[in-house]
Structures are given as structure tokens and as C-alpha cells.
Amino acid sequence: MSNCVRTLWRASVLSLLMFSSAVAQQTTLEFDAKESDGLSVKSKALYPEGLEYDAKRERFLLGSIRKGEVIALYKDGTTTRLVDDERLRSVVGICVDAERGRLLVNSSDYGVATRSAPSDKFASVALGIYDLATGAPLKFIDLSDLKPAEKKFANDLTVDADGNVYVTDSLAASIYKVTPSGEASVFLSHDRFRGDGFNLNGIQYHKNGYLLVAMKSDGSLFKVPLNDPSAFTEVALPQPLIGTDGLVLNGPDELIAITNRASGVVSNTVFQLVSDDDWSSASIGQTFKTGDVYPTTGVVAKGKLYVNYGYLHTLGSALKEGEELKDTFHIQHVGSE
What we know:
Protein name: SMP-30/Gluconolactonase/LRE-like region domain-containing protein
Largest sheet: 4 strands, antiparallel
InterPro entries: 6-blade_b-propeller_TolB-like, Sensory_adhesion_molecule
Signal peptide: 1-24
Keywords: Signal
Organism: Pseudovibrio ascidiaceicola
């Protein structure tokens, strides 16, 4: 559900993989990480969905579905609360805009956050913009009225070269656009983006002037031109990647798709995608099975890929049954040089 465009065009984790678009032949990075590889995050009832990396301060950032906050995890294992804004419900996608010193945060309400309100379930969506260094609020843009007759869930987000933010709405079959001044609009809405459950999800800005957008329910991947969004096309894939949640763009021709579950399919797989035709089509390289941990998204930190294990599939039932909420989560290190 979350991850921003990377500036690691040539030093990407998938470049490290050295994947041939025909056959994976020159692999220098294997998706064979052990369960112990990565970082444990001890934070009661965090249930992280969004994951980012603040390279300047060498810290991971995680957004909480349950608490509606963003925490910072440092390399020594300590955590601090970076964003604590009473206006946030569930924090879903988060995005580091390092060039402008901003942290972009999607807020949605689907009834599992401590600040959830029954009347706002699938109705309240917003974009919060915060100072990346301090977490101080800069802007808060309510997106709820952009599609007034629809159920809404602001999911993932990305930012283009000019500072415009694009937000996927998984229920309203739409992509929203928010300008640097805070002006919000419907960038694209189409019935092709409708389906069972959550639909449009992971989104990435490509420097060639388009967005790559995943549809979770049916496993499609779309290419959406910024100058003519209605002319979007579907990226030809060898198979649908049902359950795609987060996308991580690690170079102009390399993309990681992180899947969990959707439409009765339990995938829980990290897929390597490679394109040699500017994302008219893509092939599948290596894959990595995460286990039943509900992986949501990933991030590249110092040339290494990390994937968030959020266990979101257990939150609703735990609340319903009055069970103890989880207190430990994991950022899995999938590959290294």
C-alpha cells in the first residue's frame, strides 16, 4: 500500500539482481532471506501498513493502521513517535519527499483505528503533509468530498518531479491529485478500476512521465500518462499478480510488487518485475515467499530491499474477539549485495 519513487535509478536492488529480461541468469542477489534477517519493531498494537526510509537521518518510518501515527525506527533499535496528529485515523500509505523535506501521509477510516468513528467508516479520507525532520504538520487536505457518493479508502501515494502527490482510492475507483499548494482534484476515475474488495493500491511515479498503478483485486498493473490520464493502458504480465499491495520502483525498468491476499487468493509473495519496453509489458524474475504475515510494501535502504510484515489480517478478528493485540512486528530484509 505504500512507497515513494526512489532516486536509486542505477544503484537499485534489482540492478543488484542483474536480471536478464529473458531469463534470470546473472543473479547476484537471492530472495532467500532467513526469518531472522531484518529488524524487529516492538510497539504495542502498531500494525504498520506504510514503510519508508529517511536516508538523511538513517531511520525507517512506519505508519500505524491502529494508532494513526508514524513512528521512526533507528538503527540502534530505538523508536520515537514522529507524527501524532489527532486528525489522522488509520495511517495507510506514507511517502518520503526528500527533495522538499516532506512526509506525505494518507489517512482513512475503516473502523479499526483508535480514532475511528462509525459514521466515517469508508467515508473519511485525507492527506497529511508533515515536516520530514520534526513531524510538525504543514498541511492537512481533506479528500472526502472529491467522490461524495462513493465509499472511499485512500491507500497508497507517490510524488512526481514537480511535487504533485497522487493518491489511490481503493474503493472509489479513482486516483486523486494534490498540488504543492494543496489543491485537490480527481486525476482519474474509471470503471475499469472497480472490483471486489480493495482495488487500486500501490502506485509509483516514473520519470518518463507516467504512473505505474497496481489493482489488488485482479492483479493488474496500469500505466497512466501524467499528460493524458484517460489514455491509461494495462501492462502485459505473464500472470495476474492478485493481492498486489505495495510497489517499489528501483530503476526505470525494475519494479518490486509485494502481494498478500485478495479475491480468495493468498499469495504472500514478493515479485521482481522487469520491463524492456517502457512498461508496455513486463516479465517476472525472482520471487520470495514471505509466509502468512500480510506483507504490505517495501523500501530500499542503502541498496537493500526491506519488506514490511504488518499482520493486518489478524487485527480485525483480534478486536472482535477481544484478543491481545500484537506488540512485535518485523521489517524483513529480503536481499543484499
